[in-house]
Specification:
Elements lengths: L8 E17 L2 E15 L2 E7 L10 H14 L12 H11 L12 E2 L2 E2 L3 H10 L5 E5 L5 H14 L4 E5 L6 H10 L5 E5 L5 H11 L3 E3 L16 E6 L1 H4 L2 H14 L2 E5 L5 H14 L4 E5 L17 H6 L2 E5 L2
Parallel strand pairs: 4-12, 5-6, 6-7, 7-8, 8-9, 9-10, 10-11, 11-12
Antiparallel strand pairs: 1-2, 1-13, 2-3
Helix pairs in contact: 3-4, 4-5, 5-6
């Protein structure tokens, strides 16, 4: 990987995008999304990257990421190879600029899986408004298992061809996950992401109920070493939370070898990060069965960095935290 940068100008901006309504992220109720935009100017071209730890999911806070990236900028990015311990959000941003991952909308032909969340009536309304697609991602474990069971079965009753990818974010107990899997129409469960925080128990549940398991949070553990298991059906790769493009490439190689599905998923980034995720998905599509879980801009109110066509104008209006000029 190229690690030496000699840009003519570097700027670091901060942004804040309001949500249409507050969203809960593992106990963090957020009214807006905050992050940083790193802008490099080199050889007549701009490169962008986003640093946006997600409260409740990222190991680092935005304050910690901000302090780390500013310290790196003060020292000079040409010394980047000396750094060994970077926060995932900072690592991902620096990998994007060193690898020159563009912000573009090229991945228009890739499968995009709509994300549905909210109470049961809200989800049903969203699903019908989308004209009843045959594949969706559903946030679970934010209500009681009984209410989630009702929702799952109501959705599948609306469309017998529907496949649902459930994401519990490790929030269930073993008993709650067991109840959910015992009562739903499992033939229409495409896979379930990490029903509990216990990896071995998740493998046992998937094996017992003969359902596909997807790995998500587990992949964010730098010490986790993937090994083939027959019940593992998919890898959910969230670049902002994993950090290293090299590590993600290794996961793509695992997926190719074991014929796993891969979802490149957002962590509620701005349009800068989302377009780079789409570009990565397009690149990795050559090696694996890739879909995009990037359907998160709809949760933002009108604000900066929510539309591609206004990108550079929006950035010019942001508060600049650091500049090399």
């Amino acid at each position: 990987m190229e690690t030496h940068l000699y840009p003519e100008a570097i700027r670091l901006f901060t942004y804040k995008i309001p949500f249409l309504k507050p969203l809960n992220f593992k106990g963090f109720k957020l009214e807006y999304r905050e992050g940083l935009i790193l802008q490099l100017y080199e050889n007549g071209k701009f490169s962008l990257a986003e640093i946006a730890p997600l409260p409740g999911f990222s190991r680092e806070t935005l304050t910690q990421a901000k302090e780390q990236i500013i310290a790196l900028l003060e020292r000079g990015l040409e010394n980047l190879s000396e750094e060994s311990e970077l926060y995932p959000s900072v690592q991902f941003a620096l990998d994007c600029v060193t690898q020159k991952i563009p912000c573009s909308q090229q991945a228009v032909n890739m499968d995009k899986v709509p994300l549905l969340q909210g109470d049961n009536q809200a989800v049903i309304t969203q699903y019908i408004a989308l004209k009843s697609p045959n594949l969706i991602k559903l946030k679970t474990a934010r209500q009681t298992p009984e209410v989630d069971i009702l929702l799952f079965n109501e959705l599948t009753a609306l469309n017998p061809l529907l496949l649902i990818r459930c994401d519990a974010n490790q929030a269930w107990t073993i008993d709650q996950a067991d109840l959910f899997l015992s009562k739903i129409n499992r033939a229409q469960l495409d896979y379930i992401e990490e029903p509990t925080a216990d990896y071995d128990k998740n493998l046992q549940l998937a094996g017992h109920y003969q359902v596909g398991l997807a790995l998500d949070e587990t992949l964010q553990n730098p010490d986790f070493c993937y090994q083939y298991k027959s019940c593992i059906k998919a890898l959910v790769i969230k670049p902002s939370l994993i950090g290293s493009l090299q590590r993600m490439q290794a996961l793509i190689n695992n997926a190719q070898q074991d014929q796993l599905k891969v979802s490149i998923s957002s962590s509620f980034e701005s349009v800068v990060g989302l377009q780079q995720l789409a570009c990565l998905g397009l690149y990795w599509q050559k090696s694996a069965d890739i879909s995009l879980g990037l359907d998160t801009l709809k949760y933002f109110a009108a604000g900066p960095l929510t539309k591609q066509e206004n990108l550079f104008e929006d950035i010019s209006q942001l508060k600049c935290l650091w500049s090399s000029l």
